[in-house]
Specification:
The protein is α+β, with helices and mostly antiparallel strands. It has three domains: 114 residues, Sulfite Reductase Hemoprotein, domain 2 (Alpha-Beta Complex), CATH 3.90.480.10; 123 residues, Sulfite Reductase Hemoprotein, domain 1; 60 residues, Sulfite Reductase Hemoprotein, domain 1. It is built from six helices and 20 strands. The strands form four sheets. Strands 6-7-8-9-10-11 form a six-stranded mixed β-sheet, covered by helices on one side. A five-stranded antiparallel β-sheet has the order 1-2-5-4-14. Helix 1 packs antiparallel against helix 5. The longest helix has 18 residues. Bound molecules: iron/sulfur cluster.
């Protein structure tokens, strides 16, 4: 199980380890399962330079953090920094529509178990856990460890390998932590679990979906945040909600009847559901152009990028439009 890895620690931003972006320090706040309160969203909006970005892991990036120390203090006071040593490794996506106490409790239990395991602070900020309620919505998002509901038990998948375990919830959480610990011991600095690291059989994972949860779902409304960019004004309106849930598809779930800010999309047929873009200029110095300005629907799922790194690209069948000195180059999925 020898793995050839990276020699350096990854530079993934966090709430404490900010990234020096072209438009100022950039912070990323992990939201296991995408959950936060309106008050917490308000703190994030008030602590940055005006723009919040929803990420493909249902986290929030805050751009233009002019005073990182004050930002960290505000985030901690808002309850969004429960384990500073583990703040970058609390990457957990979870089936967003499932609000049952048992399911959300399982997500919280996994988060707490990760944070209570000192050595897991050494995971890369890119390492991802997924908890899928059996609907298959997050199991295909390329997580390193997937807990997939099978009735009252959970299958455990590690690096696309089904470990052939079917465990009750508490034991599944324990197993997920154990997989991460074992990986760290053999990883040789690798950031993600490569296929074939663990013994088992190939996992039957669903295809990744490229958009999700816009419109009404029972007592919940899902709204798309176009290109994942939420202005301070929009965030201030959303902060009136008691609770929100960010999804990996740059949508936000709120209780039905919640006031939504102008600019969010609730029509599931809207073509903007199928458009994503990297930050581009002026936020990213590597970008050849203002990608967010250029991005528009093209009739099929598309990701617009300012360079070949394709940051923020959703998994799955998505056309890439990549900026070059002579215009955007199209690459089929
Ligand atoms: S894809 Fe390139 S231009 Fe876009 S944010 Fe990433 S590094 Fe910057």
């Amino acid at each position: 199980m020898a793995i050839t890895g990276h020699s350096s620690r990854d530079a993934c931003p966090g709430a404490l380890q900010v990234h020096p972006a072209a438009d100022g320090p950039l912070a990323r706040v992990r939201l296991p399962g995408g959950d936060l309160t309106g008050a917490q969203l308000g703190v994030l909006a008030a602590s940055g330079g005006g723009v919040l970005e929803l990420t493909s892991r249902a986290n929030i990036q805050v751009r233009g953090v002019h005073d990182p120390a004050a930002f960290a203090a505000a985030v901690a006071a808002a309850g969004l920094l429960p384990a500073p040593s583990h703040e970058r490794v609390r990457n957990i996506v979870a089936s967003p529509l499932n609000g049952s106490a048992a399911f959300r409790g399982l997500v919280r239990a996994l988060d707490e178990a990760i944070c209570a395991t000192p050595e897991l602070a050494g995971l890369s900020g890119r390492f991802l856990f997924a908890v899928d309620d059996g609907s298959g919505d997050v199991a295909g998002l390329g997580a390193d460890v997937v807990l997939m509901s099978r009735g009252d038990r959970f299958a455990v998948v590690a690096g696309k390998t089904d470990l052939r375990l079917r465990l009750p919830p508490a034991r599944a959480v324990h197993q997920a932590v154990e997989v991460a610990q074992t990986f760290l011991r053999v990883s040789d600095g690798a950031w993600r679990i490569p296929e074939g690291t663990f013994p088992g059989v190939p996992a039957a994972l669903p295809k990744p979906r490229t958009s999700g949860y816009v419109g009404d779902f029972g007592d919940t409304t899902g709204a798309l945040v176009p290109l994942g960019r939420l202005t301070a004004r929009q965030a201030a309106v959303l902060a009136e909600a008691e609770r929100l849930r960010i999804t990996p598809w740059r949508t936000v779930l709120v209780p039905k009847g919640t006031r939504l800010p102008e600019g969010l999309v609730t029509d599931p047929r809207d073509p903007w559901l199928h458009v994503t873009a990297c930050t581009g200029r002026p936020g990213c110095a590597k970008s050849l152009t203002d990608v967010q300005h250029d991005a528009k629907p093209i009739g099929v799922p598309v990701h617009w990028s300012g360079c070949a790194r394709r940051c923020g690209r959703p998994r799955g069948e998505v056309v890439d439009l990549i900026a070059t000195p002579s215009g955007y180059q199209r690459s089929e999925p």
